[in-house]
Amino acid sequence: VQLVQSGAEVKKPGESLRISCKGSGYTFTSYWISWVRQMPGKGLEWMGRIDTSDSHTNYSPSFQGHVTLSADRSISTAYLQWTSLKASDTAMYYCARHPSYGRPAPFDYWGHGTLITVSS
Amino acid sequence: DIQMTQSPSTLSASVGDRITITCRASQSISTWLAWYQQKPGKAPKLLIYKASTLESGVPSRFSGSGSGTEFTLTITSLQPDDFATYYCQQYHTYSRFGQGTKLEIK
Q1: Which one, A1, A53, A84, B47, has the greatest CB density within 10 A?
Q2: What is the pLDDT along chain B (106 residues), one digit of tens a residue?
């Protein structure tokens, strides 16, 4: 099982961005993908999740309206997107999988993280 | 929105010590609680799920307990590799993490 995330990005405020998380070694559509933010020196914040089988999403209230989750099951890839970045979006972003069927489940596999730096 | 309160935020201990970290949920989450270990520059690693079930490959010196709103992570006989930051996570309703506990060498 692997979740491979896209590389680090340096962007300016107001720019748009989409980062990716590609799953392999398992049935992609049997798992949700969640995204987790970690600001420099801070803790883990759950942003939201996407059901990769039908692209149904749930967002944390803290992130609703600020980011968009999407997925392309044909290439086993989930995306996290911003339309207008702010300096406060500077952080490491992780994707993680958890089963989308049966009982609630923890995040058993994580991507290596994508570092986003937003600076003018 | 379920809030998770973890304590202490920092813990100083020595190799061989036994330590306990506490996590409280703002409402009952049954046993839908996980513990993760994170080292600098690395992704979190799942240690324990369903409050007390050890993930495969995790050493038996790690253990978890609790249900409802009160949970603990215990590490017996601390090893040098255990000094890291630990997070609890509720996955009863979507997900939320505790603030983290940094375990430092005394």
Answers
A1: B47
A2: 999 999 999 999 999 999 999 999 999 999 999 999 999 999 999 999 999 999 999 999 999 999 999 999 999 999 999 999 999 999 999 999 999 999 999 9
Q: Residues of A numbered 38-97 whose beta carbons fall under 8 angstroms of chain B's beta carbons: which are they?
A: 43-46, 49, 58, 60-61, 94, 96
Beta bridge partners of A45: A37
One-letter amino acid at A116 equals I
Residue B31: closest CA among chain A residues belongs to which residue?
A104
Residue B6's DSSP bridge partners are B23
B65: CB partners within 8 A, 6+ apart = B51, B52, B71, B72, B74
DSSP string, A51-93: ETTT--EEE-TTTBTTBEEEEEGGGTEEEEEESS--GGG-EEE
Would you say B14 and B106 are in contact if contact means Cβ atoms under 8 Å apart? yes
